[in-house]
Design a protein that fits this description.
With 350 residues, the chain is mainly alpha-helical. The chain folds into 2 domains: 284 residues, no CATH class; 52 residues, no CATH class. The chain has 17 helices and no strands. Helix 6 packs across helix 9 and helix 10 crosses helix 11. The longest helix has 29 residues. 38% of the residues are buried.
């Protein structure tokens, strides 16, 4: 909180409050409402994409629960460190005892590939309209691309040397490797990649709509190239929800495109407000119980059965399984022929 407030105070010292108030008074709030709607739509697309990862990793569950967890994660990201703090929330909500490691692995894969999709969208938009984008922003985007690729190589190296580096965590690392491997297989990879491109295109469109709402006519290509760099910088765990870091990044980067500090700061604050409004359904979802849970009456019986099985020795379990079917068969024969015992007794006496 101290870092966030300090960064905001530094940025505020460099802006003209009168200019900011004038832009707000002359802004068009219809664009702002549209930006919030587009951003919420992007959340739904992203939740559907993440659900594919959950299914591939064997976490299971319902799509409605995945959407609920994603929205709650987006909502709590407003109050947790970095702009990705809510990922911890949705990983915890999606998993359950026995699947939390795989659920966390899907969140990491989802976030990393989403950033990759955002960078791809930025390069595609730049290729379509390179004119307005300054060379310095292109270099910044190239640096973000290289940083993400290097991070990916580091993760691959950790996976390959995991047995030596994490000798005491062999079982969790094996589970993480299996989940990641399942998430990046052919069909899942291409489906999630397409949804990721759609998701990030909607995010970039929402930022452009916010700019229009404050009468800031910055070209779409400039905003698309700036956005991934800002998100990577805001991922630093030094402020709440990336507040302050995000504003300073916008001022620094958009200044290369001749956008004033006042306008860049206002754009950043308005985009943060858009995120807060679009994530409000996540706050409502926190009050809605998760679907698909066992009833309260059934839980004690299940737990009691688990305790019985834990106390049985392996041989006892096999004997129970082997003896259960003959007993059922004997009961069925006795029910089918009530006089069988009498005939057997008379034969023996004879």
């Amino acid at each position: 909180m101290v870092v966030s407030l300090g960064l905001l105070a530094f940025v505020a010292s460099r802006i003209d409050l009168g200019t900011g108030a004038s832009r707000l008074s002359h802004g068009r709030w219809g664009w702002f409402v549209a930006a919030a709607g587009v951003l919420f739509l992007s959340f739904l697309v992203a939740a559907r994409r993440w659900f594919l990862f959950l299914e591939a990793a064997g976490v299971g569950g319902l799509l409605s629960n995945a959407v609920r967890a994603y929205l709650i994660g987006a909502f709590t990201s407003n109050f947790l460190p970095t702009q990705f703090g809510g990922d911890v929330t949705r990983a915890w909500l999606a998993g359950r005892p026995g699947t939390r490691i795989r659920a966390a692995a899907t969140v990491v894969v989802d976030r990393a590939t989403a950033l990759a999709c955002l960078i791809v969208v930025a390069w595609l938009v730049f290729a379509l309209d390179p004119g307005p984008v300054p060379v310095s922003l292109v270099w910044a985007l190239a640096g973000a691309t290289v940083a993400l690729c290097l991070a990916g190589l580091v993760v691959v190296g950790v996976f390959r040397s995991g047995r030596r580096v994490f000798a005491r965590l062999d079982e969790p690392m094996r589970e993480v490797r299996a989940a990641v491997r399942d998430c990046v297989r052919g069909r899942i990879f291409w489906r999630t990649a397409l949804l990721g491109l759609l998701f990030q295109a909607l995010v970039a469109l929402a930022l452009w709509l916010v700019a229009r709402s404050i009468a800031l006519h910055t070209p779409f290509s400039v905003l698309a190239v700036t956005l991934p760099v800002v998100l990577l910088l805001a991922a630093a765990p030094v402020s709440i929800g990336g507040l302050g870091v995000r504003e300073g990044s916008f001022v620094l980067l958009l200044g290369q495109a001749k956008v004033g500090a006042t306008e860049a700061t206002l754009l950043s604050l308005m985009s943060g407000a858009t995120l807060a409004i679009a994530s409000l359904p996540g706050g409502v979802a926190m009050l809605v119980p998760r679907l698909g849970r066992p009833s309260a009456a059934a839980e004690p019986d299940d737990r009691e059965e688990e305790r019985r099985e834990e106390h049985l020795e392996p041989g006892d379990r096999r004997s129970c399984g082997e003896n259960r079917q003959p007993r059922l068969g004997q009961r069925a024969e006795a029910t089918a022929d009530p006089g069988a015992d009498d005939r057997s007794a008379s034969d023996e006496s004879g």
